[in-house]
Design brief:
- The chain is mainly α and 291 residues long.
- The chain has a single domain, classed as MetI-like fold.
- Helices cover 74% and strands 0% of the residues.
- It has helices spanning 2-23, 27-44, 46-49, 81-117, 119-134, 137-148, 152-161, 164-178, 182-189, 194-230, 241-248, 257-284.
- The two termini are 27 Å apart.
Length: 291
């Protein structure tokens, strides 16, 4: 039994060593990773690389087309679009990562407990998850943000707390699969406690699915925040790509660059995280380990 136990533990270590080798075989995923890193660097260095103050208005340069002085042009208040794009990256990535993190922190333990213990515990938890899943999430977010305000912190909390059920279902499925494996049975046979089995034996294998799901949730959270801002329900004190699109509505014909550049950024960041998620799935999916 102890040999089976060791074999199960070794599987996790081998998959970790093979991760990068598998991941880099997917060129689209590597491209997504590079774009994601570029956005992250852009967000971290926005205050340094921005050529202008993103809030500074210059009514002498209203709707200035893209030029060497303003690479992405200016908006209706004469604000530099490129600088606002840089600063908007911070809000998008902050909300994306924070929301996905909240959903993961809630969904992983809920799904793990449900899948491992099964029976009555599983039934009660899954009925609660089903209640969340039947509610139209975006309209619920609209309602909550309309009541409590659209500050950055409210938006990330609401998106995260309405996204965890999918993570919980995914982790439940993973635990149902792994809890009958030989290395788990071996751990039980030598007297390992239930929660130790969950944390030390099953979780290192099952968490891969949650990581892949979280990368997809980042993209979804960015899209949701952009939609809220476009509808005027985001944080008015922060620069958001969604707000930039909203501002560009009335001037899209005379200054199309106002809408093109923030729209392009939203598309790029969402596509990059989806490609990254696909690559993570290929590299971490246990069913692909022996292929």
């Amino acid at each position: 039994m102890s040999n089976n136990h060791s074999k199960g533990k070794k599987t996790v270590l081998v998959s970790t060593r093979k991760f990068w080798w598998r991941f880099k075989k997917n060129r689209a995923a590597v491209g997504g990773l590079l774009i994601t890193i570029a956005f992250a660097l852009m967000a971290l260095s926005a205050s340094v690389i921005s050529p202008f103050d993103p809030f500074n208005m210059n009514f002498l340069e209203v709707f200035h087309p893209p030029s060497p002085s303003h690479l992405m042009g200016t908006d209706r208040f004469g604000r530099d679009i490129l600088s606002r794009i840089f600063w908007g990256t911070r809000i998008s990535l902050l909300i994306g990562f924070a929301s996905a993190g909240i959903a993961t922190l809630v969904g992983v333990p809920v799904g793990s407990i449900s899948g491992y213990f099964g029976g009555r515990v599983d039934e009660v938890i899954m009925r609660g998850v089903d209640v969340f899943l039947v509610i139209p999430t975006f309209f619920l977010i609209l309602l909550i943000v309309s009541i409590f305000g659209g500050s950055v912190w409210n938006v990330m909390a609401v998106i995260g707390l309405t996204s965890w059920p999918s993570t919980a279902r995914l982790m439940r499925a993973e635990f149902l699969s792994f809890k009958e494996q030989d290395f788990v049975e071996a751990a039980r046979s030598v007297g390992v406690g239930e929660f130790r089995i969950i944390l030390r034996e099953i979780m290192p294998n099952a968490i891969f699915a949650a990581i892949v799901n979280a990368s997809m949730q980042v993209a979804g959270a960015i899209m949701t925040e952009s939609s809220l801002s476009f509808l005027g329900l985001g944080d008015p004190n922060s620069i958001s790509w969604g707000f930039m699109l909203r501002d560009a509505l009335e001037s899209s014909r005379i200054a199309p660059w106002n809408a093109i550049f923030p729209g392009l950024m939203i598309t790029l960041v969402v596509v990059s995280f989806n490609l990254l998620g696909d690559g993570l799935n290929d590299a971490l999916n246990p069913h692909l380990k022996e292929k």
